[in-house]
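forwarding from the other thread:

> can someone predict this with zinc ion?

sure thing
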Amino acid sequence: MPIFEYQCSHCSHTFEKLVFKGEEGGIECPECQKQDVKKLMSAVSFMGSSIGTCAADAPKGFG
Ligand SMILES: [Zn+2]
């Protein structure tokens, strides 16, 4: 499930919210109810999807 982390620009409160498609525009802060929030880049997104796929990180050489 797509869980995003947001931070309120009004009271600096950070919170996580489950957001479906089409709902991203109406996120409001649970503390002050302001829709003045910004999405943070978080590692909370997809838990337990695919762990251990770091093969693509291997260097292929330069040139
Ligand atoms: Zn707030």
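The chain has a mean pLDDT of 77. thats all i got for now
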